[in-house]
What we know:
Layout: H1 14-24, H2 28-57, E1 72-75, H3 77-81, H4 84-95, E2 99-104, H5 114-122, E3 130-132, H6 138-144, E4 148-153, H7 156-165, E5 169-172, H8 178-188
Parallel strand pairs: 1-2, 1-4, 2-3, 4-5
Amino acid sequence: MATKIKDTPTLVGKEVKEFLKALENPKKESKETIEKMKENYEVFKELEKSSLETLSKEQPVFIEKPVGTSVKVSFDFDSTLTRMDVRSYALILMRRGIEIHITTGRTPDREDNTNVFEIANKLYLPLDRIHFLCGKDKMHFFEKHNEFLWHLDDDSIEINQINSVSDTVAISVESEYYRMVCDDLLAKKGL
């Protein structure tokens, strides 16, 4: 049985701050929004549990890609895609037909890159979707590659730099609402 996510108001930038304030001090007009978010949270938890089971069993990922969609998103590796919740979210996105990339400041010949390739393998990512920047700032990569909708990272300096030069929206994985912001950007693209 497919689980359908209920309509959720779109929340980005200033609206996210207003939503967070509404959570702290609910008003009558925000109760409906909060209830929808709570309902969707339960749906996401079910999807996350399913994704974690798939990751642990290393089963093939069956992607239901809507016809005509081609959206690319990017994940930093260290302290981002190394987190189980982020890997689970990446798998959910892949099932929705979103093209996942890893963009890391690492060099490709580092001896400890085995974990990069292991996680990429678990997510069924081809090698051409791993971008090793060899210590260069990510802002230069995203300045040239504006085809990415968003990039998820833990480094606030990198995030600010990317947002200052690129159409790619850099989002902090340190925020507990990173998934909501990422999903909102995807919803605005009709996904």
